[in-house]
């Protein structure tokens, strides 16, 4: 079982046919994909928040396939701001903070490219709220105990709504 820890430990294991697997015993980061934007960044895994199979895996911070984790939003925020030229995840007092940010000098070509991107951009409100907190919910799609990596994708749309509902139910049960 792979635990969430900053003391990263990955073992190489010989398997049938003389091949090797990588068993991750402890991990703290992985490659996570943002499907609608088609971008992948390496980011820290901060917390295990939900597991459909067993709540014990959440309590012990165990990373397995299809568990829901909180990841650091900073790499994706930096990419979004560079790609679209728009600050994301601002809290309500964002207007004052936006004025203080000085405008960087850009070529005419780059300005036109960013304006064209802005016309097509759409950011889900639930995702924007998560950017404001600095944490995104993601699903682990790799098998850390088999591949030695913790890779996955950011939750969006209906899937995000579904897991938020499930997490609220579990919180309600634990409080009662």
From TrEMBL:
GO biological process, any: translation
Family: Belongs to the eukaryotic ribosomal protein eS8 family.
The protein's name in its UniProt record: 40S ribosomal protein S8
Entry-linked InterPro entries: Ribosomal_eS8, Ribosomal_protein_eS8_euk, Ribosomal_Se8/biogenesis_NSA2
GO cellular component terms attached to this protein's record: ribonucleoprotein complex; ribosome
Keywords: Ribonucleoprotein, Ribosomal protein
GO MF assignments: structural constituent of ribosome
Annotated TM spans: none
Keyword Ribosomal protein included in the entry's annotation: yes
């Amino acid at each position: 079982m792979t635990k969430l820890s900053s003391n990263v430990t990955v073992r190489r294991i010989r398997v049938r046919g003389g091949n090797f697997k990588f068993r991750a015993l402890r991990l703290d980061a992985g490659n996570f994909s943002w499907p609608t934007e088609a971008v992948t960044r390496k980011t820290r895994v901060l917390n295990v928040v939900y597991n459909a199979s067993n709540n014990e895996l959440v309590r012990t911070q165990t990373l397995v396939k299809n568990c829901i984790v909180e990841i650091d939003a900073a790499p994706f925020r930096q990419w979004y701001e560079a790609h679209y030229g728009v600050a994301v995840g601002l809290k309500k007092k964002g207007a004052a903070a936006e004025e203080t940010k000085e405008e960087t000098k850009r070529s005419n070509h780059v300005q036109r490219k960013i304006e064209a991107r802005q016309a097509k951009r759409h950011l889900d409100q639930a995702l924007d709220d998560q950017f404001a907190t600095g944490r995104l919910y993601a699903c682990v799609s790799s098998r850390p105990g088999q591949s030695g990596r913790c890779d996955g994708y950011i939750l969006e749309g209906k899937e995000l709504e579904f897991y938020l509902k499930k997490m609220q139910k579990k919180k309600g049960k634990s409080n009662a």
